[in-house]
Amino acid sequence: MIKAAFKMPGFTIGFILAMTFVLAALVSFFWTPFPTDIVDVPNKFQLPNRVNWLGTDHLGRDIFSMLMVGARTSIAVAVVAVGIGMGLGVPLGLAAAARKGSLLDEVIMRGNDLVFAFPALLIAILITAVFGPSAVNAIIAIGIFNIPVFARLSRGAALSLWTRDFVLSARVAGKGAVRISAEHILPNILNLLIVQGTIQFSLGILAEAALSYIGLGAQPPIPSWGRMLADSQTMASFAPHLALFPGAAIVLTVLGLNLMGDALRDLFDPKIRRGRE
Amino acid sequence: MKRIFLGASVLALTASMAMAQSTHINIGDQLEPPHLDPTAGAAGAIDNVVYANIYEGLTRFSADGDVIAGLAESWDISEDGLTYTFNLRSGVKYHDGSDMTASDVVYSLNRARAEDSTNAQKGLFAGIADVTAADDTTVVVTLTSENGGFLFNMAWGDAIILNEGDDVEALKSQPNGTGAFTFTNWVQGDSINLARNENYWGTPAILETVTIKYISDPTAAFAAMMAGDIDAFPTFPAPENLPQFDADPRFTVIIGSTEGETILATNNKMPPFDNPLVRKALSHAIDRSAIIDGAMFGYGTPIGSHFAPHNPAYIDLTGESNYDPELARALLAEAGYPDGFTTTLKLPPPTYARRGGEIIAAQLRAVGIETEVTNLEWGSWLEEVFRGYDFGLTIVSHTEPMDFGVYADPEYYFQYDSAEYQALMEELTAETDPDRRIALMQDAQRMMAADDVNVYLFQLAKTGVANKNIVGLWENSPTQATDLTAVYWSE
To answer: How are beta strands B301-302 and B455-467 bridged, if at all?
Structure first.
């Protein structure tokens, strides 16, 4: 399977792009070219050079180092947010599917509709407005938005599986709904979840950047791509590299994750796979 | 840069020449006022619209900060300094056509100093014992004690003269003043329109119509200036864009002084800031030049106490709190915090606070003080910091002129409680001899610096941008105002 994935150029490019940023984020725990919490005003607005690879920002901080630590913020927020969405959404969706048509199903799915009815950013703004802006609140906000996405996906996929013969034989063998969901349904929808997870991951990074951009994400001095963009906005006309690099970081990460997601979907989808063979 | 203010005679001369030229101006401002009654709100945005344009007081500030005659043509002060007799101008009419008389002055001053007054600067009127109208154009104000700053107080936007009998609630959206401009309409969230007052008592305005547009986003403000949608931005919000305007032949950049002492305010009652050593350590931990360069792109003058450098009584005390992180660390150790401590840094929206906050947080971290930075909107800032005392540190610019008197109020948000300073302020209020007053103000500066009440950062610069053909805008900002009465297009 993994070999097959790497045969697809989209996946390979996406994987390399995404891994570059994951690696940068990991390395930033041990090492960055310069500390990001020290300002050095006399050294501001340096263009990219041999010392500051991507130049320095308006407070003289090294942009390359800021991007590395910013990757950490973006990825951490997105990972936890997707984790929340999967961790709560998938069991809810499976439970709703197992008890299709029951009150439980109705409560879960109508609750999902309620959350889904709000645009993701609006939920995020609501939460951060009530509880104050911070990275943790941004994670919770993006995570909540992810719950109905996974709940709906897993319910829909599980429903079609519940009618299949192997599930029927499991029921005949005396397995309960919980065991069937865990042992037979979940492994069969894992493909879908991985694809959706990749896409939600990229949406999470975008959402974190958007929240930080409007000042509701990670607070200073924690670097964040979105805030780097916001800070550099008024300086774009004379120091475009301040906006260019964090902007490029967001674009490349999201592009990488989407390429991976697309490739995986093609790979997992039997119809497309058969067409290719 | 010095090109602004011209005498009234020159204006009268040019008024006829200006006939063929544009008579409309679009002014840009960042903050929209909550309402338009300067006697019922502290927001500087109100004065930016109404001061001198719509409303006038007994006296007023000129462009260079002097107190000059306003609605009172002249005044006599009694020997003992307790009785002020104001001779009002005759023939002054409110925009609705009613006459401005002595009874309007009595009404306005009594309303401002009343028990239930909502005036944001009630202290200006505190020393008034009695206000009476001797006849239609003469007002006698009696003070409880001598007050050398009384005429200055009467020049504030909070001391303007309203028309007796007007519904004060209605005035919030439909101001009725005596000024050279009348209020036309207010498109909420967008703009306020003014028109020339054809029945003005003094030199009429040259501009026929004025639009004040509100653009809160600095990027949009930059674009609007560049596109010519705005003719003048008296206080441009992004100092980093000024060099570009300067390089563009279409614009003039007007750099002047303001009354804005920008300070890192400390909660003097909250441990560990109740320890003078900790406050002294703070003041040595901060590098002012890095903040002025980094946050304001060089626009700003370092200050060593809560006092404006352009004031004749100013003394430079920045040396008392020079940048010395080693000393700061030593002072912290002496105060019992060898490993530093953690505190909160709450920042209101302006650029000087948000950007300055990042620099200050980094400088404090260098001496061991960790800060939890919280960005607040103005509403939450007023609630949490200004009224709630719930903060360790905050950055704010105090834009009221000569406002070092607030340090005598132990209830004021940074809660400086010094009996010595309070006695000094009482002495200053009672003093009328100009030389003595200067000496006392210098004592006050030394006391504020010696006690390290707050960390005094810099005097905010007025960074204005205007079309190069606009003449008559204020270069400096002695009070919150956008005085358009003498503004005209040179071609």
So the answer is: antiparallel
